Amino acid sequence: MKTKKQWWLVIGIICINILIVGFSAAIAAEAPPTVLPMEELPEETAEITALREKLEVYIDEYMPIMIEMSDHLYNNPESGYFEFESSKYVTAELEKNGFEITWGVEGLDEEYNSVIEKLFNARNLPTAFTAKYKGKSEYPVIAFTTEMDALRGDPPFHGCAHNQQPPVALGAAIAMSKIMDEYELPGSIWVIHLTAEEIPPPDPTAMFKAGYFDEVDFVLQTHGGVNSGVLKRPLAGTGGSTLISANLYEFYGKTAHAAGDPWNGNDAGDAVRAMWSMIDMLREHSEPGYRFHGALIETAQAPNVINPFVRFDHWVRASAPLTQADIDKKVEQVDTIAKAAAMGTFCDVEISHYADYGYGCTTAWAQALGWYYTKMYSDEGMTSEELGRLAPGWDVGQTVSWSIPGLGSEMGTATIAMADVPPTAGHSQEKADLTTTPLGHRSLGLMAKRQGAVALRLVTQPELLENIKKELADWREYGVEQGYVTEDMFRIKDK
Question: N or C, which terminus of the chain has less Cβ within 10 Å?
């Protein structure tokens, strides 16, 4: 039998263990800093300043082609997976400037490949390409990504301003290739076309899993659009991105004459209406971070026929602090609703979970470097620490950004702050039209200079890239602890 003294010793040990566990959990749950004080960022040296000014000259000389390219893509829009002429047009310019082109993506997951083949006849992503330019050495590899798909419509249109992405990527990449040749700088410059950004499934993630980004050290992506207002998001970590689960629900009914003998039919359209109604009920009982989006992409064309088939595309979206486990549970609830809707209307349903978008991640070091040049190239009086650093998310995010560091940017006052930008709605014809104005044209050069300057710093000051990579490793550890990502999502290659 224990004495009173022994009991107090046992209780003390238990309390100490509880404190240790609690303290360890508190440490483990602490996120890396989301803001890097600017004084910690190394200054641009006089030598690098001279190189950057030469870079600006090359971009200014290339401006007429950048404007012509942006306007050409605006006037000849092609929707996702069908960017055949757009990609040929852009690669012709890259080849003219010494870049080597590789088309398509080998090694894609078969389930993914079968979905894009079924829906778009796009097996192996025939419009995707990588354009490579090697400097004095192979590494580091700085990749400028670009999208050029228009929003779907009749006809398609560049309401998300993807027509501006290729000229900015090419302006920065071609200028960098000239600087690297002239001054024998190390590294390689790539331009990567990411197809069909506006249409799931997420191609960057599929390309990443196939090893497409294995050799890349840093990704720079510019989103088009001259935007009004300042976008303020958390500077580092998962801020600004959302989880998305994209799912296809195919309802099969039985056709019949809608007037003569409707009792002999089962309406697949009824099943979708029932599903949509129940999803609206689910909204009330879902956390505020959830969003539900749906679209009928195939249905009956005649009202006097009982609809035998409907294809319903439905997304569930979730924002932090909701986790991957949370959205998976919510999708299970939507699946149950679909099955109930089919049962209640005497139809059958097939469910395909064809795409998942994870949280993206950006480092404080990368954002600080971007902010350094945002201030430099923005209009006077439009940026300050008091107004808040501009930190947009990036479409290459999701799975890729946890393994390969990068920096996303938006033109106009979203990253390069320009004065006198009129307000326009996203995904609108007005936003597309603004890209063809003098404001839209001027933003191309400013953004190319900003992205080129960041690339130049990474090539000439390798310690910056190392700091960014070390911080990203800390975010990976934190992301796993918080449930934002899982370790099987990472693909880290030592170079």
Answer: N
